[in-house]
C-alpha cells in the first residue's frame, strides 16, 4: 500500500518579536521547520537558506537508502550556503538555524534533525516526542543532573549546543528512518510552540482536530494564549492512503504569516519573503533552491520572487519608474504613493491620475467601519474564551486570552478558587501559565478543580481502631497453702527455703 501526506504549515511572528526568523516548507514529499538565530537579519537569512537547500528534494523520487544520503547531503549544502552568505556579508557571521525535516519515500519517512525544533508523532491516540533536543538542558537531563520536569523551566533551556551554522565545526544532524503508517499525524514545530505549550495539550489538540489545517491553527492559538515570546511555526501532516489523498493542500491566509504557494506547496515564515540571499550560487536565488525545474512564476496569489528587491533593466533605463506592470506599488519617484508623477520637463507628460474626493471618502469610511466591526467581533470572541491562571496569588478562572495588546489586557479573572498557588507543587504551579484552556466557564471551573485535586490530593483518613469491650481480668489462682501452716495464715510461698544446719 502506498501512502501520501496531507499537510498544513503555519507561522506567526508571535506576541513579542519584531520579525519572523522561522521558516517552514510543506510539500507532497517533504516537511521542514527551520528556526533561525543570529540577530536582526541573520536568523531569517539562515532559515531561508535551509529551506532553499532542502526543497529540491521534494521533486525527486528516492529509495530509502538514497533518501537518507540525499537528505544529509542537502543539510550539508545548507551549511555551506551559510558559510557563503557570511563571507559575502560579514555582519551575518555567527548566524545559524535549527533543521527538522521529514522526507517521504514510498511508505518510509527519512528524518534529519539538528537543534531544538521538534518532531512529534501522534499514533493510535498517543503522542510521543520523536526528536531529542540538542540543548544544554537536555544534556543535563541525559546525564541525570536534572529531571525532565525541571528542564521545562530551567533558565538555560534555550541554550542550543548543535545547530546548522556558518562555524567550521564538524557537526552532523541526527539521521533516522521511520515507518509512514496510515493514520499517523506528525507535528514539526519551532520552540515558540513546544517551549510554551505542554505536551499534554499538544496531544489533545492533535487528537481532536479534524484536519491538519485546523490542528495547525489551534496550535498557533495555544502558543499565543500561553504568552509565547518567540516566533511560532508549525507543520502538521497526516499519513493517508493514496485513495484518500486530497487534490489540494491546505493553504494559510494570514497577513502575519505570509504563504507562497506553488502547486500546492506551502512556504511560510521568513522563507516566504522575497529577495536575494547573500552568497547564493545564482544571482537571482531567492529561496527557490533546486526546484527540480519548476517555474517560480507566482501562482495562487503568491508574490513574484524578484519584485521589490532590485529594479529591472527597463527601470534602470527610465530613471526608476515602475512601468513594467508588476504592480509592486513603487513608482521609483521616492514618494511611495504608487502613482507616477508628471515630469515638468516632458511636454507630453500627462498629469497623474487623481481619486475623486467623494469616492475616496466613502472608501475610507467603509474601511474604518470594516475595521471597527472586525475589532468588535474579535473582542466578543475573546470574551467567550476561558483559561485557568493566577490572580491575587490564587488559582483563578479567567475570561479572555492570556495576552495583551499594548496597554490593553485581553483577559480578566472572573472567579477565585481560594487555593493559594504557593501551596502547589512547582510542576502544577508552572501549568498556570494560560495553557489550560476551556470551552466555557463551567469547563474552566472543572479544569481548575481537577488541577487542585491532582496537586493537593485530600489525604485518606486512616480508620480509627474500634476498642474491644473491656474484660475484667480473672483473678490469679490462689496458691495452695502449705500443709504445715496455721489454718488462718497463708503460706509464705515466696520465703526462701530454710537454711541447712551448720556443720
Automatic annotation (TrEMBL):
GO terms for molecular function: protein serine/threonine phosphatase activity. It comes from the Bacteria. Residues 6-239 form the PPM-type phosphatase domain. Keywords: Membrane, Transmembrane, Transmembrane helix. The chain crosses the membrane at residues 358-379. Residues 306-322 have a biased composition (Basic and acidic residues). Residues 275-353, 452-503 are annotated as: Disordered. Pfam families: PP2C_2 (PF13672). Residues 460-478 have a biased composition (Pro residues). Signal peptide: none annotated. Residues 323-346, 479-491 have a biased composition (Acidic residues). PANTHER family: PROTEIN PHOSPHATASE. This is Serine/threonine-protein phosphatase. It comes from Xylanimonas allomyrinae.
Amino acid at each position: 500500500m502506498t501512502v501520501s501526506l496531507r499537510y498544513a504549515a503555519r507561522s506567526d511572528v508571535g506576541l513579542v518579536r519584531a520579525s519572523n526568523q522561522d521558516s517552514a516548507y510543506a510539500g507532497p514529499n517533504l516537511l521542514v521547520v527551520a528556526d533561525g538565530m543570529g540577530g536582526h537579519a541573520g536568523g531569517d537569512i539562515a532559515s531561508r537558506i535551509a529551506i532553499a537547500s532542502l526543497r529540491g528534494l521534494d521533486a525527486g523520487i528516492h529509495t530509502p537508502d538514497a533518501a537518507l544520503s540525499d537528505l544529509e547531503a542537502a543539510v550539508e549544502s545548507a551549511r555551506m550556503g551559510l558559510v557563503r552568505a557570511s563571507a559575502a556579508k560579514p555582519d551575518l557571521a555567527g548566524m545559524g538555524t535549527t533543521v527538522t525535516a521529514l522526507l517521504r519515500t514510498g511508505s518510509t519517512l527519512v528524518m534529519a534533525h539538528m537543534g531544538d525544533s521538534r518532531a512529534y508523532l501522534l499514533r493510535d491516540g498517543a503522542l510521543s516526542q520523536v526528536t531529542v533536543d540538542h540543548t544544554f538542558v537536555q544534556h543535563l537531563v541525559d546525564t541525570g543532573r536534572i529531571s525532565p520536569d525541571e528542564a521545562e523551566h530551567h533558565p538555560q533551556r534555550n541554550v542550543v549546543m548543535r545547530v546548522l551554522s556558518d562555524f567550521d565545526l564538524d557537526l552532523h544532524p541526527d539521521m533516522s528512518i521511520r515507518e509512514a503508517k496510515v493514520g499517523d499525524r506528525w507535528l514539526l514545530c519551532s520552540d515558540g510552540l513546544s517551549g510554551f505549550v505542554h505536551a499534554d495539550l499538544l496531544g489533545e489538540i492533535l487528537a481532536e482536530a479534524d484536519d491538519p489545517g485546523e490542528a495547525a491553527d489551534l496550535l498557533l492559538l495555544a502558543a499565543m494564549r500561553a504568552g509565547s515570546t518567540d516566533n511560532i511555526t508549525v507543520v502538521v501532516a497526516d499519513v493517508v492512503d493514496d485513495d484518500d489523498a486530497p487534490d489540494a493542500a491546505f493553504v494559510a491566509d494570514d497577513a502575519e504569516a505570509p504563504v507562497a504557494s506553488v502547486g500546492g506547496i506551502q512556504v511560510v515564515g521568513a522563507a516566504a519573503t522575497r529577495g536575494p540571499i547573500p552568497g547564493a550560487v545564482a544571482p537571482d536565488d531567492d529561496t527557490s533552491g533546486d526546484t527540480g525545474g519548476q517555474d517560480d512564476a507566482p501562482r495562487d496569489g503568491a508574490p513574484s520572487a524578484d519584485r521589490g528587491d532590485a529594479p529591472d533593466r527597463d527601470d534602470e533605463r527610465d530613471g526608476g519608474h515602475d512601468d513594467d506592470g508588476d504592480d509592486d506599488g513603487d513608482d521609483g519617484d521616492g514618494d511611495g504613493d504608487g502613482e507616477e508623477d508628471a515630469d515638468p520637463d516632458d511636454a507630453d507628460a500627462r498629469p497623474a491620475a487623481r481619486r475623486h474626493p467623494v469616492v475616496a471618502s466613502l472608501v475610507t469610511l467603509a474601511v474604518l467601519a470594516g475595521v471597527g466591526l472586525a475589532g468588535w467581533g474579535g473582542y466578543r470572541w475573546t470574551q467567550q474564551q476561558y483559561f485557568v491562571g493566577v490572580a491575587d496569588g490564587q488559582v483563578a478562572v479567567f475570561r479572555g486570552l492570556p495576552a495583551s495588546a499594548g496597554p490593553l489586557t485581553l483577559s480578566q479573572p472572573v472567579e477565585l478558587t481560594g487555593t493559594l498557588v504557593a501551596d502547589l507543587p512547582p510542576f502544577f504551579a508552572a501549568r498556570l501559565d494560560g495553557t489550560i484552556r476551556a470551552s466555557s466557564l463551567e469547563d474552566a471551573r472543572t479544569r481548575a478543580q481537577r488541577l487542585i485535586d491532582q496537586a493537593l490530593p485530600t489525604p485518606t483518613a486512616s480508620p480509627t481502631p474500634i476498642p474491644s469491650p473491656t474484660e475484667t481480668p480473672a483473678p490469679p489462682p490462689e496458691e495452695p497453702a502449705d500443709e504445715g501452716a496455721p489454718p488462718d495464715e497463708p503460706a509464705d510461698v515466696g520465703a526462701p527455703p530454710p537454711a541447712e544446719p551448720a556443720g
